[in-house]
Specification:
- The longest helix has 25 residues.
- It is built from 7 helices and 14 strands.
- The strands form 4 sheets. Strands 6-7-8-12-14-13 form a 6-stranded mixed beta sheet, with helices on both faces. The protein has a 3-stranded antiparallel beta sheet with strand order 1-4-5. Strands 9-10-11 form a 3-stranded antiparallel beta sheet.
- The chain is 31% helix and 26% strand.
- The protein has 262 residues and is of the alpha+beta class.
């Protein structure tokens, strides 16, 4: 039985390492044997188990939120089959992309966290990949049809649009803002995190891309497909293994799995 758990404090206390005040309701690492609490920053910097990047129960379940929403809707006798099936299709896409990402985990280059809850919101982050070149915030899309960028206007009147199967889907790009803000707020607790790159990604798992390599950005959001994402994750960057582990531990705790394991 473990004596060291991540929980929300029922009573105010202080971190036994840095002496930071921890109000009631704060997430912290609680050691029931010593009755000591450690703040998430201290736990990320100096974990109880230095060999564990992320606790297994905090890794998340790919497609968990989308599958749960599908099941909730499907349980209604009068549910709309088309919208309900869209949630199942979304869950399938997330599970597929998670398998692709975890192939890189085995090479010791990245840490993958699936289906993260955003504090104060019903929204979630499909995948986080902590790689040498930065933190990748990944929104998986299981859409069909051609994916392309359209540019209108000139100079300061220039606008970029994401087109999928002939339809303007630029809202998917703007929808990344909330996810990026949640990740930035989580890691800003680390004194050295200011220069850590956060890379927003829309990954279309089965859309049409053609024979060339048409990856592009729309308003600084990278738009690509799974294998192109894998190639980006293999790039070198400023985050060594120790820094990646610290970031992964903090993100896993601050942005908890949207659907609890088990």
């Amino acid at each position: 039985m473990t004596t060291n758990r991540l929980l929300r404090l029922r009573y105010p206390t202080s971190c036994h390492r840095c002496e930071r005040d921890l109000p009631r309701g704060t997430k912290a690492r609680w050691d029931s044997a010593s009755h000591n609490a450690a703040c998430l920053v201290c736990d990320a910097e100096n974990p109880a188990d230095p060999f564990a990047e992320v606790d297994p129960e905090l890794r998340g379940t790919a497609g968990g939120s989308a599958q749960a929403e599908h099941d909730r809707r499907a349980s209604r006798p009068d549910h709309n089959k088309r919208s309900t099936d869209a949630w199942r299709k979304g869950a399938d896409g997330e599970r597929h992309l998670s398998k692709v990402l975890h192939k890189e985990v085995g090479k010791g280059r990245i840490v993958v966290l699936d289906d993260r809850a955003i504090p104060g919101s019903r929204a979630n982050i499909d995948h986080l990949a902590i790689a040498p070149s930065g933190i990748y915030v990944i929104d998986a899309k299981n859409y069909t049809g051609k994916v392309e960028r359209r540019v209108d206007g000139f100079l300061r009147w220039r606008t970029e649009h994401l087109i999928v199967d002939g339809k303007d889907q630029t809202k998917l790009v703007t929808g990344m803002d909330h996810q990026i803000a949640a990740v930035r707020a989580a890691i800003d607790q680390l004194d050295w995190s200011r220069g850590v790159p956060i890379v927003p990604v829309l990954c279309f798992v089965q859309s049409d891309w053609g024979l060339l390599d048409p990856t592009f950005t729309v308003d600084n959001v990278h738009v690509l497909w799974p294998q192109a994402l894998r190639r980006r994750l293999r790039r070198d960057g400023p985050l060594d293994g120790s820094l990646r582990s610290k970031l992964a531990r903090l993100l896993a705790a601050e942005l908890s799995p949207a659907v609890p394991s088990g």
